[in-house]
Amino acid sequence: VPDSTWGRYADLHDLAPIGYCILSDTGLILHANRVAATLLGVVEDSLVQQPISRFVFEDDQAAFGEHHRQLSEIGEPQWCELWLVKGDGTKFWARMAGVAVHGTDGARVCHGVLGDITERERAEANAAELAAARAAAAMDALRLAREKEASESAARLAAEKRAAADTEAAR
Predict the structure, then answer these.
(1) What dihedral do alpha carbons 2, 49, 59, 35 form, nearest 10°?
(2) Residue 19 burial (C-beta neighbours within 10 Å; 0-12, 13-18, 19+)
(3) How many CA atoms lie within 13 A of 134 on its CB side?
(4) 124-165: per-residue pLDDT in tens?
(5) How distant, in Å, are the alpha carbons of 21, 29, 52, 78, 118 from that of 48?
(6) Are strands 19-24 and 78-85 parallel, antiparallel or unpaired?
(7) Within 13 Å, how many C-alpha atoms sit on residue 145's CB side?
(8) How many Å apart are CA 143 and CA 10, to the nearest integer?
(9) HEC string for the chain
(10) Side-chain half-sphere CA neighbours of 144 within 13 A
(11) pLDDT tens, 41-68?
């Protein structure tokens, strides 16, 4: 972005409520805003020339590699959700989205956004657990109702048999 244009958008970029990054075609961070640095738990200037994959949790490296490959090959906006690791080693669940474009020098770069979705994932997991617990409780209630009905039917049948036997004995 030309410096004259960048000046007009620098505050918007740096103060946005989401992490913004510009990555090289090889995945090096060329620029990151304050939110991206805060999310990753590092100083903003220390991100430049670092591979973004450094912050991807090892179990998610393959998924990230596929995401990065698709960005380069498909040329359309792509997104993924994966675990990222902060500078202090703590993990957070993140959503990364980006699009590959040609930079001002003609080199292919990725404009990406990054957000912490840990709380959303926790809420979805809690909702799923609650739904499972409700389903289990409903199944238990149904089983108990069927057992009660079977017990009552057996008691009625036994009472009818006794009444029939008493009637037969009285004759």
Answers:
(1) -50
(2) buried
(3) 6
(4) 666 767 777 777 777 777 787 788 888 888 888 888 888 888
(5) 10, 5, 10, 22, 25
(6) unpaired
(7) 6
(8) 63
(9) CCHHHHHHHHHHHHCCCCEEEEEECCCEEEEECHHHHHHHCCCHHHHCCCEHHHHECHHHHHHHHHHHHHHHHHCCCEEEEEEEECCCCCEEEEEEEEEEEECCCCCEEEEEEEEECHHHHHHHHHHHHHHHHHHHHHHHHHHHHHHHHHHHHHHHHHHHHHHHHHHHHHC
(10) 6
(11) 999 889 999 999 999 999 999 999 888 8
Answer whether 33's CB lies under 8 Å from 48's CB: no
Distance CA 110, CA 70 (A): 11
